[in-house]
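Feature request, filed as a ticket because there's no other form

It would be nice if the structure record came with a short human-readable summary line next to the tokens. Right now we just get the raw output. Example of a typical job, pasted below so the devs can see what we mean:
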Amino acid sequence: MHSASALIQRLLVRGKFRHLQVLLQLAELGSVQRTADAIGTTQSSVTQTLAYIEGLLEVQLFDRHARGVRPTPACSDLLPVLRQLMAGVADAAEIISARQHQGEGTVRLVASVAAINGLLLEKLPEFGLRHPTIQVQLRELEGEDQLLAIGRGEVDLVACRRPSVIPEGWEFRALREDRLAVLCRADHPLANARKVGWKRLAEHTWAVLPAGYAVRTRFDTFAEQLPHAPRTFPVITRSLPVLWKLLLTCDLLALVPVTLARPLLDAGDLTEVGLDASMQMDPIGLLEPTAGMGDAALRLGLHLGV
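Raw output as currently delivered:
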């Protein structure tokens, strides 16, 4: 049995990216032959590669059975790390390719759904036209996953709502104010109503987000103050396309951040119900490193702030 330090040295000296590809394909496809077909090699090559990796790590990674292979518990523990490593390899290839094509750099941008809809949909196309040699790699992440990406050094900028905890060495710059709104389709009975109170709103059916979302907590807080709970539609989803479809095809109301629905509001597909009180939310903005920001990230940050 070897220590973690000894295994690191083994992997650095004798490990290959090809090994990661073989393990991930075997875990996904469950077959040596299908893995060989997928990566363009022979069945014997995959079998030899697997034997080599298991010998290198001195642990069995797959159980063989009549229909193929299945990951052992040790392999299942490794798979999330292997996927992360392969994602890093892909990112490195994109960065090198961008530089080889006379690029001015790459920005690794992470964004929440609210920031994508309320800020990036408007700003990113224009940035791409103005700076065609800067590559922006956008990933959608929320909350804790954004902070984990910062901690792992996987991101240059984060577009998000103001977080309750700002990582050390980073700062938040507010760019868009936000508030909650009650939304419906244009021909809903309340579409043209003004200064509607929650008692009247409770007479209608609602599409709601799953429990655990801040918006759902606000909705539940209002509902608890009413004589009876509002009716809710039986489909409860975090999928925005499904939520928008529900609102556009059914006489439903939904409590949603304005930034999240901005494209549909601007297009006139959805409309706001006039409330008798405003419901502010934390603003949308950028988390930026306080030092060491690259030129490409700096240019994108300046563009988003205009």
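Something like this underneath would help us a lot:
The first strand starts at residue 62 and ends at 65.
The radius of gyration is 25 Å.
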